[in-house]
């Protein structure tokens, strides 16, 4: 089968990364979580006093973008890639509620998007990649051979995020998470640069009533169909 590029876009917390990671492992592709990259930029801004009560210091962040080094390294225990910021594993920190609260406004900044899209294109230039995010099929790889747009109801997505945080032992409230999911959808879909929308040639997957194994099987079937055609 030919190496292809797989773009998985969609709303927040709808299980994109779980299905993308599982498929990557199964078919030996590289998985890139682009949301983790925007989260790492957000964490950098928080750690360096560029996010305060007054909001984001955009000029300060623009000046310091060159210092932000984001890499991924396979975690032998989980079999999945962890996100590193400046050589330090930040996989846990970037999933905190505080980062989730600031990441959408950070992802609206043109200079942040430009830097991340450049990095993503470099990471995927050799094909054989599965990238998940919001603008992969529309902006980063508009020529991707397989594009999937994933969605699920806000209640289902909030419950999944809640269960994830509870399993990690992090205190959280389902109401706060639901509000965050809805607010991120609003910001992601209405921002001026690269708003979240379905690419014309993407296949829609509403997984509100699907189990993880069902989604996995569905995605594998799509991959086999497209890679065999190519
Ligand atoms: O997938 P996630 O929830 O970890 O993404 C975090 C935020 O990053 C989300 O609010 C939207 C933004 N994002 C983006 O704008 N473009 C991407 N390609 C990926 C994520």
Helix and strand topology:
Elements: E1 5-10, H1 16-27, E2 30-33, H2 34-47, E3 51-52, E4 55-56, H3 58-64, E5 70-75, E6 80-85, E7 88-89, H4 97-107, H5 110-124, E8 129-133, H6 136-140, E9 146-151, H7 154-167, H8 174-190, E10 203-206, H9 212-229
Parallel strand pairs: 1-8, 1-9, 2-8, 9-10
Antiparallel strand pairs: 3-4, 5-6, 6-7
Helix pairs in contact: 1-9, 2-4, 2-5, 4-8, 7-8
The chain binds 2'-deoxycytidine-5'-monophosphate (DC).
Keywords:
230 residues; alpha/beta; Rossmann fold; five-stranded parallel sheet; three-stranded antiparallel sheet; binds 2'-deoxycytidine-5'-monophosphate
Structural class: alpha/beta
Task: Classify the beta-strand content into a percent band.
Answer: 15-25%
Largest sheet: 5 strands, parallel
Q: How would you write the strand order of the largest sheet?
A: 2-8-1-9-10
Q: CATH homologous superfamily name?
A: P-loop containing nucleotide triphosphate hydrolases
